Amino acid sequence: MKLIKDLGMLFPKPESKRKYRYGLYECPDCLQPTKAQTTSVNRGQTKRCASCGGKVSASKQTREQKITHGDSGTRLHNIWNGMRDRCRRENHPMFKHYGGKGIKVCDMWNDYLNFKYWAELNGYEEHLTIERRDNDGDYEPSNCKWATRKEQSNNQTHSILNRFTETELRVIQVNYYSSTLNQAEYAKSVNMTRSSFQKLLAGGYKNLPKANLTKRVYREQDDRGRFKSKDS
User: Fold this and answer.
1) Which of 206, 176, 178, 177 has the alpha carbon at shortest distance from 192?
2) Across all residues in the chain, what is the average pLDDT?
3) Cys bridge to 204: 23, 49, 98, 199, which one at CB 3.0-4.6 A?
């Protein structure tokens, strides 16, 4: 919570014998001022005013999520876990495209129940996937929506066509066939996902037909003179 004013040392209750430092804070949910112990706010134990949730310790909150929400293993809970893993776990295969680029999950969505509440209010259905409106932005309510896989694919297409001109895409398409790189390596070298690159090769983008070229397969030899396999 954002500190508005330091209230100094105060007794929590009239009968209290010990003073604690208090502050006037802005509740992140309702934006109204609320009085809270400075230590509790700094430790993350008090995150909002009493009317918006009250004081819940981080450890208790985690235990309650595991015990009460009952959603472990559901598709929505898996989406929430996957979203956080991509942004936090450095050993996640997609981390470099999310957390490695500075993309984060907002603090409010670190609580699964908050994420579930947003999802239900914004039309979540079992066939939909979460999508960020701004691909460089964080996972947060103002930047996310639910979309079908086809809509996501269309948005990825728009992203490619906005980043590259048709001439540049044609050059990328043609140069691949004379390179020594496989599809994954070449796609990475031109800052494109493999799926988008495969779509380009197949002529899946408007005004960019499939190139009638043959990829030469470059094969390396190991220390015994045997050819190593390399996908094209």
Assistant:
1) 176
2) 78
3) 199
